[in-house]
């Protein structure tokens, strides 16, 4: 019997006991095999990548709260963006006997041995937001439509430049506009999806000469920022300014895949005089609607972000967890897109939304993601 069926069996037993009015259901702590177990005896290990980005803190908190509300115990760990730390944390979750794992990988290719150990112990694995690659032992994937996130990033740059109208029709601007390109961390499967979506969207404009990548750095390898780090992005933007814009030409737009990267880019640009003295800030995209960046958007410094409602992602992770722990198949809405190199992983994908200054209120405040005061302060309370 796999661990998930043991868990389901235990939960079923607990239900039977409570239905019969017998004492002890829900209070037992003596393990699945004793007949006194309830949901409260089932532990879900949740491995998150880092606390340096607020989205992952929110993800961890939301997943934990949702699982606890469903009656599970939660073993939540953050790994400081350090691969050995994350591997070790997952090893420990398996040794401790956690009943299910939810993993947002740092390096999506580095967890094969942990996942086969989980499989051997009968523990199922949900890949959270970032697909774990190269393993047959990933049971389910919850994420967003990551290709479409990239389309939205590219679209927001084109809209900000006036090459596209908000409704997607061609804009009146003709360019040529100098646009530089940034990508995420290459060990994160999502980085390629974001890049492909953005580049497919921007390519016709590059081909027609309306968008010019003046540095000539148009491959994902050149554009990638290891571990999505703000400081690395700032340095690369500084290097681009020195190498490609020392002739008096100006940057008009920057494709950025993540708000932290956008903030690094903005710092480099501001240090070079953009955003002051009559020199406009370029149009800059982003992702995650991090509060510091939402303020920058509200203040007209960053043009857009892509909002992914992590509350909904956490909810899906909890729904899939409950299904697995009750011995059922979680409901997928995509069984084709996410091939991890060994298998196509059944997925539940959510939609995302472009946020500019114009819809901060409807997208983020009216939905209680942030308050107006938080947006004004650039800090979540
Ligand atoms: C996530 C993004 C996030 C990035 C950096 C990606 O895997 O999908 O939402 O911006 O990691 O943390």
| Ions, cofactors and other bound molecules | beta-D-glucopyranose
Question: How many H/I helical runs?
Answer: 13
Sequence stretches where pLDDT stays below 50 over 5 or more residues: 4-38
Strand order of the largest sheet: 2-1-3-4-5-11
Give the strand tally: 12
- Give the overall shape: elongated
Beta-strand percent range: 5-15%
Helix content bin: 40-55%
Q: State the distance separating the first and last CA atoms.
A: 46 Å
H/E element order = HEHEHEHEEHEHEHHEHEHEHEEHH
Mean pLDDT: 91
Cα-atom radius of gyration: 23 Å
What class would the helix/strand composition place it in? Answer: alpha/beta
Task: Describe the fold and architecture.
The protein is α/β, with parallel strands linked by helices. Helix content is 42%, strand content 13%. It contains 13 helices and 12 strands. The protein has helices at residues 3-19, 54-69, 83-96, 112-120, 146-161, 189-207, 220-223, 230-244, 259-271, 291-298, 310-325, 360-365, 372-377, and strands at 43-48, 73-78, 100-103, 124-128, 140-144, 177-181, 211-212, 253-255, 283-284, 304-307, 347-350, 353-356. The longest helix is centred in the middle third of the chain and has 19 residues, at 189-207. Residues 4-38 have low confidence and may be disordered. The chain binds beta-D-glucopyranose. Beta-D-glucopyranose binds at residues 53, 55, 129-130, 184, 188, 190, 228, 258, 287-288, 308.
């Amino acid at each position: 019997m796999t661990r998930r069926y043991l868990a389901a069996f235990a939960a079923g037993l607990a239900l039977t006991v409570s239905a019969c009015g017998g004492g002890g259901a829900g209070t037992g702590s003596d393990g699945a095999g004793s007949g006194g177990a309830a949901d409260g005896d089932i532990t879900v290990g949740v491995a998150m990548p880092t606390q340096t980005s607020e989205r992952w803190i929110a993800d961890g908190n939301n997943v934990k709260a949702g699982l606890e509300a469903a009656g599970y115990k939660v073993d939540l760990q953050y790994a400081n963006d350090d691969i050995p730390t994350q591997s070790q944390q997952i090893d420990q979750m398996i040794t401790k006997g956690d009943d299910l794992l939810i993993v947002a990988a740092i390096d999506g290719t580095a967890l094969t041995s942990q996942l086969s150990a989980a499989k051997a112990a009968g523990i199922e694995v949900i890949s959270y937001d970032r697909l774990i690659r190269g393993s047959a032992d990933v049971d389910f994937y919850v994420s967003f439509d990551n290709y479409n996130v990239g389309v939205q990033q590219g679209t927001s740059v084109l809209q900000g430049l006036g090459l596209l109208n908000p409704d997607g029709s061609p804009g009146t601007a003709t360019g040529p506009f100098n646009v530089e390109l940034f990508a995420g961390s290459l060990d994160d499967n999502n980085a390629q999806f974001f890049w492909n979506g953005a580049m497919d969207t921007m390519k016709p404009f590059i081909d027609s000469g309306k968008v010019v990548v003046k540095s000539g750095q148009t491959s994902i390898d050149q554009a990638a920022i290891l571990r999505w780090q703000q400081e690395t992005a700032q340095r690369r933007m500084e290097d681009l300014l020195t190498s490609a814009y020392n002739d008096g030409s100006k940057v008009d737009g920057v494709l950025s895949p993540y708000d932290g990267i956008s903030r690094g880019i903005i710092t480099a640009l501001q240090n070079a005089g953009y955003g002051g003295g009559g020199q406009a800030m370029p149009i800059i995209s982003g992702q995650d609607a991090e509060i510091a960046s939402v303020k920058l958007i509200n203040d007209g410094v960053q043009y857009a972000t892509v909002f992914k409602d992590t509350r909904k992602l956490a909810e899906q992770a909890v729904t899939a967890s409950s299904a697995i722990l009750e011995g059922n198949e979680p409901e997928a809405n995509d069984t084709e897109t996410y091939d991890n190199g060994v298998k196509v992983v059944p997925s539940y994908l959510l939609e995302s939304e472009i946020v500019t200054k114009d819809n901060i209120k409807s997208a983020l405040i009216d939905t209680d993601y942030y308050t107006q005061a938080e947006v004004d302060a650039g800090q979540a309370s």
